[in-house]
Amino acid sequence: MKVVICGAGVIGASLAYFLAQRGVTVTIIDRCGVATAASGKSGGFLALDWCDGSPMEQLTRNSFALHAELAALLGKTYDYRRLDTYLVESTERDSLVPSRPGNPKWLNGNCAVRYALGTSTTTAQVHPEKFTRTLIDAAIERGATLQIGCIEGISLSGTPQTVRSVVVDGTSIPADVAVIAMGPWSNTAAKWLPLPPVGGAKSQSITLHPTGKIPAHALFVEYRTARGEQHAPEIFARPDGEVYICGMSDDTPVPESADQVAPNLPACDALHRMAANLSSSLASAKRTRNQACYRPICIDGLPLLGRIPGVSGAFVATGHNCWGILNAPASGLAMTELIVDGYAKTVDLSPFDPRRLMSHSPALVT
Ligand SMILES: Cc1cc2nc3c(=O)[nH]c(=O)nc-3n(C[C@H](O)[C@H](O)[C@H](O)COP(=O)(O)OP(=O)(O)OC[C@H]3O[C@@H](n4cnc5c(N)ncnc54)[C@H](O)[C@@H]3O)c2cc1C
User: Domain containing 59: what range?
Assistant: First the structure.
């Protein structure tokens, strides 16, 4: 069986890893390179139980466990670690009094830890770009091929319609199976296959390099500016000394390709100002990156994982919204089972079946 995975973000990478492990011939294609979009620019935060009570529960719990297994198996090359997670309040106006459990020493600005959202048992992190690259490298070691090129179409023939090849830069790559894993660009594939709409929600992020060591903490911040505006930046200290901060969403449409995504610089400055209000270490830290990326999102906020109806050999794996790094391992494993064995045994994929949203599709875009 020849499988072509369209998109080398974390979802395509995880699928490539698990398919290659099963001995499947895999080609993974990306127009810009590995992890050039959200999969290289996200927080990399993982939580065991934050999706409990939703259709994501089983997928997420399996994935959190798989992250720990993969980190042990693949080596600590992508900064996997457990951490403590806090809800923090911060304001540019009134002074705040910390309540229990009290502020960690490094949070010496105008902020107050309100409560713990997670502990080292329930929350963890990876460096998302390093994680995605590690999965691709491991897939290549097991025989997969990575190709850089723009996917321009999927060739179908027969009755029922069956995948024959994937067209990349004008050349056809033979395929028995094609998987659309193009994140917020999966909408492009609606020109070739019957797919429900997938949108993209943009946020900015920055990275800082403080001189001192910041402990293994993740912060979800309720922030009020001097003008009374409310924001919700997220701050993740990383083992390599970097501190990652994201937030400040905007509604700029998804550009044609990942290398055209540009950060909104005033919004990046605002993220740095907010971080500075929390900690003198972050105020004095050198800013190393301003960046932006898009979360792939479906109308009901759930991923699309399954067969594309009406086309034999066509599958989709996208729409992971704000939890793509967390849910990549269990998504890749379950999709591998679906493609190779004909059904997913580790996760019930029925809540994520694309057919649930087909009424929202304007059918094939021509
Ligand atoms: C600011 C921010 C912070 C986040 N933080 C977290 C977090 O802490 N934890 C978490 O779990 N998730 C987080 N997420 C969500 C997570 O990053 C995404 O859900 C995930 O990265 C999506 O992965 P993907 O592989 O589906 O898509 P992408 O990473 O977008 O990859 C899609 C790939 O498809 C390629 N492609 C598109 N069109 C074509 C074409 N025509 N030909 C060839 N290639 C093509 C693109 O170049 C791209 O590389 C965050 C997202 C954002 C925006």
Answer: 2-75+127-198+298-360
CATH number at residue 328: 3.50.50.60
Residue where the block lists tokens 């509604």:
251
pLDDT digits over 43-75, tens only? Answer: 999 999 999 999 999 999 999 999 999 999 997
Q: What is the pLDDT of residues 299-353, one digit of tens each?
A: 999 999 999 999 999 999 999 999 999 999 999 999 999 999 999 999 999 999 9
* Pair 139, 43 in one domain: yes
Residue 277 contacts by C-beta under 8 Å, 6 or more apart in sequence?
90, 91, 92, 109, 110, 111, 223, 283
Question: Which of 293, 321, 336 corresponds to the end of one domain?
Answer: 293
Alpha helices in 79-188 (DSSP H): 128-141
Which of 4, 29, 32, 39 most suits a substitution to test ligand 1, by most atoms within 8 Å of the C-beta? 39
Q: Ligand 1 within 6 A of 37 CB?
A: yes
Please, are residues 221 and 111 in contact by the beta-carbon 8 Å criterion? yes
Dist. CA 72 → ligand 1 center (Å): 24
Q: Say how many Å lie between the CA of residue 311 and the centre of ligand 1.
A: 25
Residue 322 Cβ < 6 Å to ligand 1: yes
246-275 residue pLDDT tens: 999 999 999 999 999 999 999 999 999 999
Q: Is residue 47 part of a domain?
A: yes
Residue to mutate (ligand 1; options 325, 326, 331, 335; most atoms within 8 A of CB) = 325
Q: Answer whether 233 contacts ligand 1 (Cβ < 6 A).
A: no
b/e burial code for range 206-221 (CB count within 10 A of at least 16 → b): bbbebeeebebbbbbb
At 363, the pLDDT band (50, 70, 90 cuts) reads: very low
Q: Total domain count for the chain?
A: 2
Question: At which of 259, 293, 327 does a domain end?
Answer: 293
Residue nearest to atom 2 of ligand 1 (CA): 42
**Per the confidence metrics, is the pTM higher than 0.90?**
yes
